[in-house]
Amino acid sequence: MNLKVKQKIPLKIKRMGINGEGIGFYQKTLVFVPGALKGEDIYCQITSIKRNFVEARLLKVNKKSKFRVVPACTIYNECGGCQIMHLHYDKQLEFKTDLLYQALKKFAPTGYENYEIRPTIGM
Fold first, then answer.
1. Are residues 105 and 82 in the same domain?
2. CA 46, CA 106: separation in Å to the nearest integer?
3. Is 70 inside a domain boundary?
4. Using an 8 Å Cβ cutoff, are 37 and 16 in contact?
5. What are the two backbone dihedrals, phi and then psi, of residue 63, each rounded to the nearest 5 degrees?
6. Domain TRAM: where (predicted)?
7. Is 57 a residue whose pLDDT tops 80?
8. DSSP label at residue 17
9. Is the sign of the CA dihedral 59, 65, 66, 72 positive or negative?
10. What is the pLDDT of residue 112?
């Protein structure tokens, strides 16, 4: 891994992580970026380097997701309690259902293939 803390890099976000962060790859290194959404092209700054991945801070969204919205909460950026409020609500519900599918596939409890998974219920 040839990255340094404070280094600024462009990144294409490929998917969302379990904590709502955007995930991309830079020179085959996994990069987690809170605030980034799947499908976005961003510019970010490395904040932490771990053994198998790096964490980065979102600096600029060059190509926005069509599902990006302005968070309804005025303290969204400071609080950190609602990690995906910048994602359209319908897509938040889909994201949560997908997390369940991923967890079942990863941990594979007996008979999980036959579970009836219903869509996440919203407000």
1. yes
2. 28
3. no
4. yes
5. -130, 110
6. 2-60
7. yes
8. -
9. negative
10. 83
